[in-house]
């Protein structure tokens, strides 16, 4: 699939998702049919190393259905990061299986989770509970981050989505992103062999290691994808609200106008949001390009280069976060009281944006940017930055 093919497929899938997104979101069922739609379109098999294309595809899908855009963006990121680990053969097989069978890949690796891999004679048994295991309940393959029981290292293993010992409590009923299957996951003695270990992290390895420096890009990749999703939500909200204003909004009596689209306050409101969206889109794409540049450095990536990449990503995330929350709320001022009906579906944009924007507090990213401005110090490397 060429980049042009992927973008064309994304626009077609986005159109299909838009047709019944309000009803599907309200029903809050596991998004199996939506994953099948992605599978049939070929999008699951797009080249995960072509970040500029996959990020654009993610944003296009997110504008119609933020949940499915979220699942797809994470799927691409998991496949992209797989090649950064030790087991090149497993990463290659995983990608081949995705291309051949249209597999959907998810992960449980929240740094706050405690999942333990217990060593036996020639296998591991993995047990624990993960929160916010986005997409795992419907995944064909799951990347599991775990701590070895000897506490000497952390590992990432790949297990089938239907492995014995996996269960998914039905506890995802959140305000927004309702179709991301982001509930918890429970692992009870899930078996994995040495060939299933994608990567190992010795405890003594830190930022002085070139491999550690390269792997630290994973957290920035997730932040970049989330930024693109937030931009997509804003795009979808403005498009939907503008359509409502054109077709259904009534002018306020005090305006003395016959049409809402002629009200200068409405026009200026949309214009301000459109200008801010244009800026956020440029920043999001700049963050993607910075990640691509850092990724291409491979094991030659320096801490300074990594720091500059983090600053670019954080700037985009701050702006996209603020705009998504503002725009998805302000559209109701521009559409009018009748737009607050549940049937309009405009509320889903705010609920999705609000849910995603508390994923990790953006104020900490703003602090990193301010610290660098005042002191020159780069951002610390964490699971979120």
Automatic annotation (TrEMBL):
Domain Acyl-CoA dehydrogenase C-terminal: 229-360
Superkingdom of source: Bacteria
Keyword Membrane part of the UniProt annotation: no
InterPro entries xref list: Acyl-CoA_DH_C (IPR013107), Acyl-CoA_Oxase/DH_mid-dom_sf (IPR046373), AcylCo_DH-like_C (IPR036250), AcylCoA_DH/ox_N_sf (IPR037069), AcylCoA_DH/oxidase_NM_dom_sf (IPR009100)
Alphabetical keyword list: Oxidoreductase
Keyword field contains Oxidoreductase: yes
Spans through the membrane: none
Cross-referenced Gene3D superfamilies: Acyl-CoA dehydrogenase/oxidase, N-terminal domain (1.10.540.10), Butyryl-CoA Dehydrogenase, subunit A, domain 2 (2.40.110.10), Butyryl-CoA Dehydrogenase, subunit A, domain 3 (1.20.140.10)
Name of this chain's protein: Acyl-CoA dehydrogenase C-terminal domain-containing protein
UniProt organism field: Micromonospora humida
